[in-house]
Amino acid sequence: MKNVTDSFVSLGHWPSAGSLGFNTDILSTNLINLSVVLGVLIFFGKGVLTDLLDNRKQRILNTIRNSEELRRGAIEQLEKARDRLRKVEMEADQFRVNGYSEIEREKLNLINSTYNTLEQLENYKNETIQFEQQRTINQVRQRVFQQALQGALGTLNSCLNNELHLRTISANIGMLGSMKEITD
């Protein structure tokens, strides 16, 4: 570093034509150089920098607009989904209420049907019992009648002789003849 500063120092001692010379103070020369560089950059780079900043601003604004549109679309979709959810919940409640009503109705129908079937079965049972009682009574009557008839025939056969037998037959024939005359 000593060589660089020495070269500036030695340049400062050149004999010049007038008061023009080199400034050997590094700090003041740096400020001047920086201000010149900044002035040139601002003058020439102003348009480029402005274009870059405008492009960046437009991209940011477009991103914000797109985000707002997406947000609005998402909010609309959310509202539609909420509306659909409300409708579905209402339909589900209706189905639930109708389902419970239908279940109760079917339950009552099943109870009534079962009651009617039991009533019919009870009637069939009573009719069957009555029929069996009547049939049993008729069978008992028939047996009693057969036994009485056999007993009477047995008594008649043991008590009847030929003459009594012929008189009975003649009386019956006479009764049949008189009945025939009445009907003619």
Automatic annotation (TrEMBL):
Transmembrane parts of this sequence: 31-49
One of the Pfam families matching this protein, by short name: ATP-synt_B
Key words of the record: ATP synthesis, CF(0), Chloroplast, Coiled coil, Hydrogen ion transport, Ion transport, Membrane, Plastid, Thylakoid, Transmembrane, Transmembrane helix, Transport
GO MF entries: proton-transporting ATP synthase activity, rotational mechanism
Additional detail: In plastids the F-type ATPase is also known as CF(1)CF(0).
Species this protein is from: Uncaria macrophylla
Assembly behavior: F-type ATPases have 2 components, F(1) - the catalytic core - and F(0) - the membrane proton channel. F(1) has five subunits: alpha(3), beta(3), gamma(1), delta(1), epsilon(1). F(0) has four main subunits: a(1), b(1), b'(1) and c(10-14). The alpha and beta chains form an alternating ring which encloses part of the gamma chain. F(1) is attached to F(0) by a central stalk formed by the gamma and epsilon chains, while a peripheral stalk is formed by the delta, b and b' chains.
Protein name: ATP synthase subunit b, chloroplastic
Record's subcellular location: Membrane; Plastid, Chloroplast thylakoid membrane
Entry function: F(1)F(0) ATP synthase produces ATP from ADP in the presence of a proton or sodium gradient. F-type ATPases consist of two structural domains, F(1) containing the extramembraneous catalytic core and F(0) containing the membrane proton channel, linked together by a central stalk and a peripheral stalk. During catalysis, ATP synthesis in the catalytic domain of F(1) is coupled via a rotary mechanism of the central stalk subunits to proton translocation.
InterPro entries: ATP_synth_b/b'su_bac/chlpt
Residues in coiled coil: 64-98
Bilayer disposition of the protein: Single-pass membrane protein
Primary site of residence: membrane
Keyword Secreted found: no
Protein family according to the UniProt entry: Belongs to the ATPase B chain family.
One annotated Gene Ontology cellular component of this protein: proton-transporting ATP synthase complex
